[in-house]
Write a structure and sequence with these properties.
single chain; 255 residues; alpha/beta; Rossmann fold; 7-stranded mixed sheet; two-stranded antiparallel ribbon; 10 helices; 9 strands; 40% helix; globular
């Protein structure tokens, strides 16, 4: 096997082609290469995927496909919810050096990895915050972009994201095969949260990737003052569910 810059030569070429697809700079490519190597080699990286080509496809390409959306490319203040291994947050920060990204993560171990990764990969435009989305008061109403990949049901993601967005800001949620029931629940939740209904964008991050969609949702008015609800309520009593709506409302009144 031939290796290049710590990667198999074929994988290095695959990564270079991915960067070329989005017109990324050599500096961005170097940062992404360092991230790939870290995800492959670091035993503390919170991912089960270690094969170089799969890391590039399933993690990097799947993250960077959001660059196809204009609201992502123009964002200057962004937060990645449940950032985990830094996907998509670290990858997008490497690709968008003029944007400031908060990597919001509730698990201390993952925060330690994110902090290490930002340093090793020389991605300076990130801040790692160990906090739940519902408890992060400093970010309320201040972000152009919220991203969420493999985090929670759509309606729950919408409730996490809406209070953090400025009016006009956008939520981008990564999903697989479309689910009409989940989409309907998210649309009902959006009405309560000051969000528009989602614009669903089919995407093709790499060859063989089927049933991939990005849900693009804009904040069109201020989120009501009852949000965010206290930690855990979004999952316990999700908005958009007719049976859960009275409980959700009563929780907001009690607060």
């Amino acid at each position: 096997m031939t290796w290049s810059d710590g990667l198999p030569a074929g994988s290095a070429a695959r990564l270079t082609a991915l960067a070329g697809r989005y017109g990324l700079s050599d500096r961005a490519l170097a940062r992404l290469r360092a991230l790939v190597e870290l995800l492959i080699d670091d035993p503390l990286a919170p991912t089960a995927i270690r094969d170089p080509d799969r890391v590039i496809d399933d993690h990097l390409a799947d993250s960077l496909v959001a660059l196809e959306l204009e609201p992502v490319r123009r964002a200057r203040q962004a937060v990645d919810l449940g950032s985990g291994a830094g996907l998509p947050g670290l990858a997008l920060a490497a690709a968008l050096p003029e944007a400031q990204f908060v990597l919001l993560e509730s698990a201390a171990r993952k925060c330690a990895f994110l902090t290490q990764a930002a340093g090793v990969c020389r991605i300076p435009n990130v801040e790692v915050i160990h906090e739940r989305a519902e408890s992060w008061r400093a970010g309320l109403g201040s972000n152009d972009l919220v991203t969420a990949r493999a985090l929670a049901p759509l309606a729950v993601v919408a409730e996490y994201a809406a209070p953090l967005l400025r009016v006009g800001g956008a939520l981008v949620a990564w999903r697989g095969r479309r689910d009409p029931e989940a989409e309907a629940a998210a649309a009902r939740a959006a009405v309560e949260l000051g969000l528009a209904s989602s614009d669903i964008r089919p995407v093709h991050p790499y060859d063989g990737a089927d049933n991939r969609n990005l849900y693009l949702t804009f904040k069109v008015m201020q989120t009501p003052s009852g949000f965010p609800r206290r930690p855990g309520m979004a999952l316990k009593r999700p908005l958009g569910s007719p049976s859960a709506a009275p409980d959700a409302s009563s929780d907001r009144v009690r607060r």
